[in-house]
Amino acid sequence: MSERFRVIGGSHLVGTVSVSGAKNSVLKLMAASLLAPGTTTISNVPDILDVEIMSELLTRLGCAVQHTGQSVSITVPEAPLHRADYDLVRKMRASINVLGPLVARVGEAEVALPGGDAIGPRPLDMHMKGLESLGATATIEHGYVVARAPHGLHGADVLLDFPSVGATENIMTAAVLASGVTTIDNAAREPDIVDLGEFLISMGAKIEGLGTPIISITGVDRLHPTSHKTVPDRIIAGSWAFAAVITQGDITILGSHPGHLEIPLEKLTSAGAIITSVDNGFRVRMESRPTAIDISTLPYPGFPTDLQPMAITMNAVAEGSSIVTENVFEGRFMFVNELSRLGAHIHVDGHHASITGVSELSGAPVQATDIRAGVGLVLAGLVAEGETIVEDAFHIDRGFPGFAESLQSLGADVSRI
Ligand code: UD1
């Protein structure tokens, strides 16, 4: 039987938390280490299951991976293997990030299709079209994306239909070893992309325009291993900010860049939060019930889809009505059904959720369907009368190291059972 979180409602979270390195960055950095033979070391690595899965994947590709404390060293061979099997890819979507580096390094990659997941379909057409523009063939064969470029890749102008994080990453990590110049237009601008780009630059890549919609990459013949510190996890930092507001608490969030959360923090300020800068982080205080706020998820610097469940939870207990619009992942409202079990008043119509705030939720058993939904439900349990059991805690463990322990240190009555 899998672990569950038991949450007793009623506490205001007060205290200080430290934010780890970003899951959505470290996994991509680990995959990109394939680009250079030798030993690359990544620090500020969060203690999460997905890091173990990526280590296993890299090991199967011929790398030697050593994980000690908050650091991972990856020794990449001259000729890595090129197949990422379904049993690992299905466990962790970020496996798809080995596609670009493998095509660029060994001229061939076979990566199992990750399939859909609890937040909806997640196609790969832009990844494949991007690699084709660089001269690879990319097809789907027997459940695998197969990309080949036996004669190497060449630079190209790539225009993305949507600023996809994953597609930008795969194209960038292929183009760094292509001959000539690649331009990615309508590129993703997430801090994770900037982190990956800086990692590649430290390996000897030539990249300009990181953090803007146009990234320009001049290919080089060879990259060298590097050492790099992972960017702080803005989604975890943002989740703590929402936790302070939802529970009418006072949390100081250290080791994070508030600049990566401009829009979410602006929304929380409109909801009534008092947000101040402190050395190496920021503090979020809430002295009253939040005011309902309309929110639309968008690619960075817009409001992140990964904070949407926290935004819905806040609005569920806020004063007034609101609309939350999901523009990135269509399946992300699955969590609303669970929140409704706690007495939230939410009506979903397409990609809009209309929420009427209630003054108190009421504890019940609910199910975490993905990491962020799980965090949202635990936070909801903190403002629900009585006991809430959140099933399938492993989802939360996949992306939020030490969540239960941090909650306890802030005064929450939370345990794992
Ligand atoms: C997304 C988030 C990212 C978050 C991550 C983990 C956005 C823009 N991206 O990145 O911030 O950290 O999830 O939860 O918020 N798409 C296609 N074809 C493709 C690729 C993507 O249609 O080839 C669509 C997806 O279905 C989705 C949208 O583009 O609707 C964004 O996808 P993408 O940014 O690629 O997703 P992730 O890289 O998983």
Can you offer a commentary on this structure?
With about 425 residues, the protein is an alpha/beta fold. It has 2 domains: about 5-20 and about 230-415, UDP-n-acetylglucosamine1-carboxyvinyl-transferase, Chain, CATH 3.65.10; about 25-230, Enolpyruvate transferase domain (UDP-n-acetylglucosamine1-carboxyvinyl-transferase, Chain). It has helices at about 25-30, 50-60, 85-90, 100-105, 125-135, 165-175, 190-200, 235-245, 260-270, 310-315, 335-340, 370-380, 395, 405-410, and strands spanning about 5-10, 15-20, 40-45, 65-70, 70-75, 85, 110, 135-140, 145-150, 155-160, 180-185, 205-210, 215-220, 225-230, 250-255, 275-280, 280-285, 295, 320-325, 345-350, 350-355, 360, 365, 385, 385-390, 415. Bound molecules: uridine-diphosphate-N-acetylglucosamine. The site of uridine-diphosphate-N-acetylglucosamine has 19 residues, from α5 and α6.
Supply database-style keywords.
UDP-n-acetylglucosamine1-carboxyvinyl-transferase, Chain; 31% helix; four-stranded mixed sheet; binds uridine-diphosphate-N-acetylglucosamine; 417 residues; elongated
Chain-wise SSE layout:
Elements: E1 5-8, E2 14-18, H1 23-32, E3 38-43, H2 49-60, E4 64-68, E5 71-76, E6 83-84, H3 86-89, H4 99-106, E7 108-112, H5 125-133, E8 137-141, E9 144-148, E10 157-159, H6 165-175, E11 181-185, H7 191-202, E12 206-208, E13 214-218, E14 227-229, H8 234-246, E15 250-254, H9 262-270, E16 274-278, E17 281-285, E18 295-296, H10 308-316, E19 321-325, H11 334-341, E20 345-349, E21 352-356, E22 361-362, E23 365-367, H12 371-382, E24 384-385, E25 387-391, H13 394-397, H14 403-409, E26 413-416
Parallel strand pairs: 2-15, 3-14, 6-7, 10-11, 18-19, 22-24, 23-25
Antiparallel strand pairs: 1-25, 1-26, 3-5, 4-5, 7-9, 8-9, 11-13, 12-13, 15-17, 16-17, 19-21, 20-21
Helix pairs in contact: 1-2, 1-7, 4-6, 5-6, 6-7, 8-10, 10-12
This protein binds uridine-diphosphate-N-acetylglucosamine.
Uridine-diphosphate-N-acetylglucosamine binds next to helix 5 and helix 6.
